[in-house]
Specification:
heterodimer, A: 100 residues, mainly beta, Archaeosine Trna-guanine Transglycosylase, Chain: A, domain 4, four-stranded antiparallel sheet, globular, B: 385 residues, alpha/beta, Rossmann fold, 2 domains, seven-stranded parallel sheet, 15 helices, 14 strands
């Protein structure tokens, strides 16, 4: 496997080798297998989406919410700081008046 | 399951036999360093604290110094004070001695200056080293191990390989009757609900949510986003996107044992089993807090490669990233990258970490020890006055 999906709930996979844009990557999700065509090149340790995630939707890894999509994310797209917002420790949002 | 331990007169069991030269204040740090440099078999812990501290901040620094000096890996401690500081050498020495530890004290102002203090300190340190040599290690149960769990310089492999393997080792130690400490409160943020479910009682569960809320409140007070510090730039380059993702990966190192309680920084656990200590994510401050709380061995996972050790406790380095292992092999004890490559299971590497812990407890030196990494840092609650 060139990418790991930790639980069936996850909507992202972690690359365990450097993967090229356009590559078709086969991943195991529980008992099923899925093939995802990569939109971007994905470096070792980085994530890509298994399915489309709408803006504001939950990004799930380890079966838990790890943040919310800041933009619409397409299947096979690189999922990282440019398109995922952390929901925790956001003192900056408190300053803008929008924080929790 | 037995290891080799040094049983202290007060009952503590150490797996190392250090003579510690401890300044109570920054102004005594240079003298302490010179004493240690002149006497083989001693180690100094220079630090920048001890003056202009009040309230909980003062108490925490004092508790850390006392706990560190009274750690069972220490055979004897020479406290070096200046004479006018808030964290007084006399107080630190008296509190360490009250725990039953072999303790000596010099005060620079009383000795009449740096040179005289260094000369006298060298004499005392040599005596303490001589006494430490008389201590003969004997077989002790593995339950004497108090394990500090640490991760630093994390990348995506930390949560996939190194931390889950360390969790297996932590569970093996807890099953053998030992003690394990999880720290780094910011790296619980986003995963506290999972940890709280494992709390043995309501108080512990509530306290877990409270300590994380305090970190978040700190970020709000400063009007700052913790991203950039948590996750750190290296974490982000390594594929970790948010603090929630980092925390979910970090928690694996605490295995599956129930959480017995939550301690303040540098506080001692109230028994065996798995405990949580409220520390920052700053690795050296976190390790120092756990060792001051009685940890006599540390396992430190690192995806990107962190060389930090500890002045008095052996630190075992585990990386889940094979490239890091081969890039920094002189610093790394265990390659858990085999899990990602599919040549070993998480359980196999966990067992390997546990076996190495036992070997280290029987005297094998870790890479950080061989390299002389002796990092020490105390966390602060408030600014100096």
């Amino acid at each position: 496997m060139r990418a790991i999906v930790l639980t069936e709930k996850d909507n992202v996979a972690t690359a365990v080798e450097n993967l090229s844009a356009g590559a078709e990557v086969r991943v195991s999700v529980g008992t099923k297998e899925l093939v995802v065509k990569l939109v971007n090149a994905i470096q070792f340790g980085h994530k890509f989406a298994l399915k489309g995630i709408s803006q504001g939707g939950e990004v799930i890894k380890y079966g838990e919410v790890m943040g919310k999509a800041a933009t619409d994310i397409a299947p096979g797209e690189h999922v990282h700081v440019h398109n995922v917002e952390s929901q925790r420790g956001r003192g900056d949002l408190a300053v803008k008046g929008g924080g929790q | 399951m037995e290891v080799q331990g040094d049983v202290r007169p007060w009952g503590g069991i150490g797996i190392r036999n250090h003579v510690l030269i401890m300044p109570s204040v920054v102004c005594a740090a240079e003298v302490a360093t010179r004493i240690a440099a002149a006497v083989p078999g001693t180690v100094a812990v220079p630090h920048q604290h001890g003056c202009g501290q009040i309230g909980a901040d003062f108490e925490q620094t004092k508790r850390t110094l006392v706990g560190y000096g009274a750690n069972p890996n220490v055979a004897g401690v020479l406290v070096v004070g200046l004479g006018c500081e808030k964290v007084a050498g006399e107080t630190v020495a008296a509190e360490i001695a009250a725990r039953g530890q072999r303790t000596e004290l010099i005060i620079i102002q009383k000795e009449g200056g740096s040179r005289r203090a260094v000369t006298k300190g060298i004499e005392i340190a040599k005596q303490l080293v001589e006494e430490a040599r008389q201590v003969k290690p004997k077989p002790v149960p593995a339950s004497a191990l108090v394990l500090g769990l640490e991760c630093g310089g994390s990348d995506a492999t930390s949560g996939l390989a190194a931390n889950p393997a360390l969790g297996v080792a932590s569970d093996l130690l807890v099953a053998a009757g030992g003690t394990s400490i999880l720290s780094e409160t910011p790296e619980i943020m986003g995963a506290e609900h999972l940890l709280a479910r494992r709390a043995v009682d309501e108080t512990t569960s509530k306290r877990l949510f409270e300590i994380v809320a305090q970190v978040e409140e700190g970020a709000r007070r400063r009007g700052a986003d913790i991203r950039g510090a948590q996750p750190a730039p290296g974490n982000i380059a390594g594929g970790i996107t948010t603090i929630e993702e980092k925390s979910l990966g970090c928690l694996y190192k605490a295995g599956t044992a129930p959480i017995q309680g939550v301690m303040d920084y540098a506080e001692r656990p109230g028994g065996n089993g798995l405990w949580v200590m409220d520390t920052p994510g700053h690795d050296v401050e976190s390790v120092t807090g756990m060792v001051a709380g009685g940890a006599n061995i540390v396992v430190f996972t690192t995806g990107r490669g962190n060389p930090a050790g500890c002045a008095i406790a052996p630190v075992i380095k585990v990386t889940g990233n094979s490239s890091t292992y081969f890039n920094m092999e002189e610093n790394m004890d265990v390659n858990a990258g085999t899990i990602i490559e599919g040549t070993e299971t998480i359980e196999q590497v966990g067992q390997r970490i546990f076996d190495l812990m036992l070997a280290v407890a029987r005297g094998k030196l870790t890479k950080a020890e061989e390299l002389g990494h002796r990092e020490f840092a105390i966390t602060r609650i408030g600014p100096s006055l």
